Amino acid sequence: MTVTPPGTPARRRAPRLAAAVFGALAIVGTLLVPGVASAAPTPEPTPTASIAAGTTVFTLAPVSNGVVRAGDPLTVSVTLQNATDAATAPAEITLSLGSTPLRDRQALTEWLDGATAGAALDPVGTVVLDPVAPGAEETTGIGLAAEDPALAGRAPGVYPLAASYSTGTGVVTSTSAMIVPSDGAGEVGIGVLVPITAEPIAEGLLTADELSELTAPSGALTSQLDGVDGTAAILAVDPAIPAAIRVLGTTAPATALAWLERLEALPNSRFALQFGDADVTAQLEAGVPRPLSPGSLTAYMNPSDFPSPTPSPTATEGATAGAAAPSNTPTTSELLSIGPSTRDGVYWPAGGTAGPDVVAQLGEIVVDGRDAITVIPSTSTAGGADGSTVAARGLAGDADVLVYDTDASDALYEASLREKSSLRGAPLTAATAYLAFATAEADGPVLVSLGRSAERSRVGLGTAITTATTAPNVSPRTLGGLAASPALPVEVQDAAAAPERVAAASDLVADESEVARFATILDDASLLTGPERAELLQLLGVSWIGHADWATALADHRVTTAETLDSVSLLPTSALNLYGSSASLRFWVRNDLDYPVNLVLYTTPDDLRLDVQRETPIVATPSSNTRVDVPVQARVGSGEVTLALQLRSPAFVAVGAPESVDVNVRAEWEAFGIAALSVVVGALLIVGVARTVLRMRRRGRPTDAAASADDGEGAADVGVGDTGGAETGATGAKAGVGPAGAGAVDSASSDEGKTAVDAADSDGSEPTATDAEHPGALPDAEEQR
């Protein structure tokens, strides 16, 4: 750490030649020891790491993680980073070493934090650091030969080490340590926890494109496997990652499939984190009885991506006719598998969040016949909070726990994030120093964690793991070995509350409950509940803690959930008119889901004037509007009836908001209309018949007149004779025969014809066949007239 102490420590100047020689040794040591800080001077200024603008950072990084055994030299590198607008002045760096070891872990913590007041240090070397340009950094080395008197006769222990230089305003100092191990000490088991996780997401699973990027040769997931490959690290794998690969079936990216195969082939012991690395503390404090597990992931799978293997001829012959082909899609447990050597029932809450209640609640869970184990930091225990070493295997009441050393873990985590070896050596040395105290004080194996991070290089990760597993007097242990160690009593302290995370978990669980109720409209409810549970767990991921975008992700998810719950509803309906005694009322159901849904429309009238079909089953087609016809029957009377409409699932869960529609009932109008129509039809029939009769009469009158003329003509022939007779009669009349005779004949003929016509009119009969047989009658009569 960089500090500005109030005074300058006493020092003696080392020969310039020795400084040059051991600067070269620093370079050689860096090349020979993997994962140590580079002590080689940089020929050209290199860009500085991300530090606060307007500041400089001075870092002391011992080579070989500060471990100096008898006969070894001491080599360090010093780096000055300049984020100001001006170049720094040349600086003479002085390396100082304490003559007595630090007494305990607390003293080490204070020293590394920069508390150098009163420390007894002796200068052991100097070097001049060239000016550092703005936005650049410079690294150089300082060293002590193995035979240097400052190293001779050192007892085992952790010694304070410091590098400093003077400025115009004071002294800048960076502190570290030199570790002299005890060759005769027994080995202590050590476990190294390494999470395999991705960046936090709000979706249920990583997409194919995201997997392609993460599992590419330079991807973050590839770097994580590169870092743990060949080490004894205990893997804590987020099962959502292999699940995201497996749900894609044959469409999964080739790099992702290769990554998954490589993960499964690693011999490391491992356990599964919560899906999405969800924080178990937030879940339990939100009222969930036990940590949530992922539901079905069927919604993420396409059956066509999982072709069934070609059946053998024997199997085909023995198959039952009409039997369905077996599904080849993997089960949920198969999707979530993280490989061999897996121990179930291990929970790792976010550091410092699990109090005694959470640990006790997790300890009551039994998985595969074994009690669950909770992973907690040493600072969550009474002993660790005081700065003491806590063994890895503990028992908090009746709950089994694994306790990782907080100080060593924090240093290893910081080292795994450092890009440059010249800066990585400082936290690696600090971790080694803490482990030196831990192995000397622990009553059993110790545990360290590299923390959760999806973005670190394979070199940084691998170096941190190697530093822990190769520290003096330790030997790697597997997860099973740690769990089988004797458990020592520990007292778990209360944890600081995180009300915003508990509130978020409560809201998410409540929303999920609503989605589960709503999903009863589907044949397979998991098509909605599965993604909702997966997204809930992802949003509770530990990596979201302190993330600036978490609140936005939560808000977006809740909006999406509300849209899902509103995706099925009745469309508004305007007032309807019912003029008959029975009809079907038409309504429409909107379904924005990609799946068909099963519904029942409940229709309730507020008046007895209308009988309605109370329950109408519906299968609404996906992504469309579906018509619903509801039969109704009007009773006696008219008026306005309001129908209450409510969609429900087959499980009687209300779906969408209730609607109402006004129906104007005019049931008597139907009887009135039928009577009026009957009158109109009857009148039309009477008029038609009357017109037909009159037409027939008009047709019949000329025919009868012709027949009468024919009869008169016959009578004239008999009584009068032909024309000559008529003329004779006329002559006789003139002669006095008498007009009376002639008149009598005419009158008789006229009366006879009139009688015939009246007789025809009186009975209303149609013209007879006799009339039709004398077509010339009418012309004759006309001719006579």
Automatic annotation (TrEMBL):
Q: What is the lineage of its organism?
A: Bacteria, Bacillati, Actinomycetota, Actinomycetes, Micrococcales
> Which stretches does UniProt call biased (Low complexity)?
313-334, 703-720, 728-750
The answer on whether this UniProt entry bears the keyword Transmembrane helix reads yes
Signal peptide location = 1-39
Q: Which domain of life is it from?
A: Bacteria
* Protein name as catalogued: 2-oxoglutarate dehydrogenase
Question: What InterPro entries is this protein classified in?
Answer: DUF6049, TAT_signal
Which UniProt keywords are given for this protein, alphabetically ordered?
Membrane, Signal, Transmembrane, Transmembrane helix
What organism is the protein native to?
Microbacterium allomyrinae
